[in-house]
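Risk register update: the risk of archive-format incompatibility is retired. Evidence:
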Amino acid sequence: MSSISQFLPEPKHPSSGRQHEEAMAESSQALVAPQPAHEIPAYGQRSGWVPKTSDDFGDGGAYPEIAMLQYPLGMGRKRSKKGNALAKQVDGNGNVSYDALVRHGRRPNEVVHSQFKDMIPLRQRADFDDNQEAIPERPDAETVRETTERTKQALEKALGKHTGAKVAKPDREPTYIRYTPNQQGPGFNSGAAQRIVRVSDMPVDPMEPPKIRHQKKARKPASPPAPVMHSPPRKLTAEEQKEWSVPPCVSNWKNIHGFTVSLDKRLAADGRGIEELSVSDNFSRLAEALISAESNARKEIAERSQVQQALARKEKEAKEENLRMLAQRA
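Archived output:
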């Protein structure tokens, strides 16, 4: 037979007797199972062992022999950012109330119509009582005056941010300064020994354009960005990749980036190997003309030398004949 104590809740204020404390201690020891001691394998015996909790690291750091991401004491782990999730709320009938989504970020005294019944007139609602008035009472004169004053102060505060720096303070009274000029005499300062100067703030027109020119920031793009039409992506073939591999441009005169280009590549890029070498017939004609001119010149030189030798021989013979005749006469 079950006792009535099973259906009663636990006492909120337990007695402070010694027997009660001993009973509570025994029950807690019976409920809490003894936890086994946390053992970490020794060095060299950690193959297949993976540290999962912070107790696996103890007071030390990561294990270099285990190739995996390790976060001893939570160091290096990315902290998750707090989200802006709202708590789930339920109305009096047990249905989920989504008013928190609409009222989030608004003033507490702001009227927000978030339910479907707000669109139905008061006289046609199911929870409308015939004893109450369909049109609420209008605010009294004191409430209207307070609301008007509060709105006026808010507008003045908003306008004061823009025009407060330009408009002079009206409460500031002008000041008077008396001074004595250094140059005294009837010809200076119209004969006056002292002067009084009135110093006051000059009123500034709040509609005057600012003297400092502010540069406007670039306008942000529209909320829906303009769609960019692209063809469907397709994989490139090996031939297309070779066609699109454009080598860098290297000049024969300047090499700022320090590219190393072999001589055969430079000659191929120069275009000298593409040209066809063709020798004109005029070169052979010129060579033949030079050879014939040289042979003719040699012949003329040889003939000229022979004529000179013959003339020299005749002249020598004439001299010898003259000397012989002179010798005979003597």
